[in-house]
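TEACHING EXERCISE
Course module: macromolecular assemblies
Task: Read the component lines below, then compare them to the predicted structure of the full complex.
Student: A.B.
Group: 4
Components provided:
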Amino acid sequence: MDVNMVAQFISRAVLQGTPLLYGATGEIITEKSGNLNLGIPGIMYIGAISGVIGGFFYQNSGSEVVPFLAVLIPLLCCLLGSLLTSLLYCFLTITLKANQNVTGLAITTFGVGFGNFFGGSLIKILKSDVPYLSLVKIAKAFKTTFDFGSDMGVFGKIFLSYGFMVYLAIIIAVISGFVLKRTKIGLHLRAVGENPATADAAGISVNTYKYLATCIGGMIAGLGGLFYIMDYSNGIWSNNGFGDRGWLAIAIVIFSIWKPGLSIVSSYLFGALYILFNYINVPMAYLPLIQMLPYVVTIIVLIGTSVRKKRENQPPQSLGLTYFREER
Amino acid sequence: MKNKSKRTHEPLFHISKRTDVSLKTGIIIRIVAIILALIVCGIVTKIFTGDNPISIYKTIFDGAFGKGRTLVTIHEIAILLCVSLAVTPAFRMKFWNIGAEGQVLIGCLSTAMCMFYLGGKIPDGLLMLIMAIFAIVSGIIWGIIPAFFKAQWGTNETLFTLMMNYVAIQLIEYFLKIADKSGSNVVGPDLLTHGWFPTLFGTNYLLNILIVAVLTVVLYIYLKYSKHGYEISVVGESENTARYIGINVKKVIIRTMALSGAICGLAGLLLVGGASHSIDSNLADGRGFTAIMVSWLAKFNPFTMILTTLLIVFLERGADEVSSKFGLNSDFAQILTGIILFFIIGCEFFINYKINFNHKKRAQVKEEK
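Instructor-supplied answer key:
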């Protein structure tokens, strides 16, 4: 393997890892508030398709595609779509105190269906005359890279060859890590996730924190879906193309023991595992066994953290439990 | 005092828990929710198809119970019911097993492997027995692994079982690659030629439906009247209580998950041996996840589950028909299922909690003034 191959491998791993990073960061913030949002895979689909719908209208509106708007419109649509879905989850689990697992799975069922339905039928519903759902012009705006990156050889290939959303994912992860660990808001949020009754007694508004964390987390996760469509797949929607990446993101949350900083590294690691088979010489039959690795590793980490019982590595204590003030 | 109470902001209502809801009220609330959901589904369908509402409902009904479809629909109900029954014992124990998908798939895989490697080499009757044993044992193994770690070290079972699903999926992919060298994504009836379940009275699927019907009754009795069922309920209510009255909680957790896994394995056996005679990694088709919702909606009662599976399968098959009639994407079914689930999940709140409006109090304060 020469240097260029390695550089190409790393850059492809980063591209694979970025949707996972968005999903994982979003889910970490959500889980820190004690909400185990299993709707994340669905929310990522909805984020993706909302962006696609927004972009589709813009691209086919007849006007010239301005790069700035081409990025802004899908981005806002994506945020809006994932926000609404997260609000639905919050309303059901926090206000109506429904079971989080059931609600989350329902959201995923709905979200994946919603994404594939509109991805497959949007053109028919709008009676549009374009042959298939393709947003190449929009995707081009998303994929704009640094001009000087391509002149810098291997260094440029590894660090500077991406669209802005790759960097945005890292920035969001770093900021969330900082907010969770170092600020008062983060402290309150963690208190809500660990023991809502105590947090409530201390005067923290449990429901507000849960709502905010889940919605912000959902919006970040939705961006992962948008990145996958606009950057990774060049603006071309294919049904179920996003696959099980949403669940993989939840695996990364465990793998990085609920730390956004670690999730950056683990996302790229999982991304590398995803594409590893292209670069090593094994018979095709062993391919599924390699793709199984991320999940097996996650299970081992999950067992390891629970056996060692190190306090800072545990899931938030009230994860998955509904909080009702009068129930002690 | 009076002045102060006047100034303090009083919320419009407060929420309290209620446990005394009569069966009748509970049923009425649920029926209202389902009707509301069906109306919303109708509106959504109208928006996308432009058809008139009555014809939409007719299409949905035809899709589920139209000519030649009833048997397939009942079989779909039976399989989903089987998986729902499987997750129920663990859920009553508050063990959040969301790995039913994987447990079913591993049952499918074992069945298919027996059919592939032993088919034609031994008598069919013996083959079916071996298939059943392998399917159930593999389901048990898939269920027991997370249960053991949960019982021993408190490992989070929701996340553990979730990951096990994907291990099972990849194992199937591996088997597909070995069994079918052509590289297709499915090993079909042409390779799995032996070990097909017999048809009863010339009808396919009837055996599967009967097995699930018997299972429903047995599980109801097990959960309601046996000592094991009682222990499961106690552990679900409070582990501390269970320990106090001398129940071995670890043993109950592992035993119950073994049962859950066994039934999931059985569902896998029915799917491959009794219905599809083929295997691919999407064979469980999300039933493991749907079953969780079905079981929860039925309040973990096996007989109520028949109704909830009926509702879900009816909608899915109906929506399939709507989407094929109007050339829409078949994922339309998922959207309708989602809508109906949201309504039923939401309505539980009005069954479990009471909203007390504070009008009276406020009026009193005014009068006193």
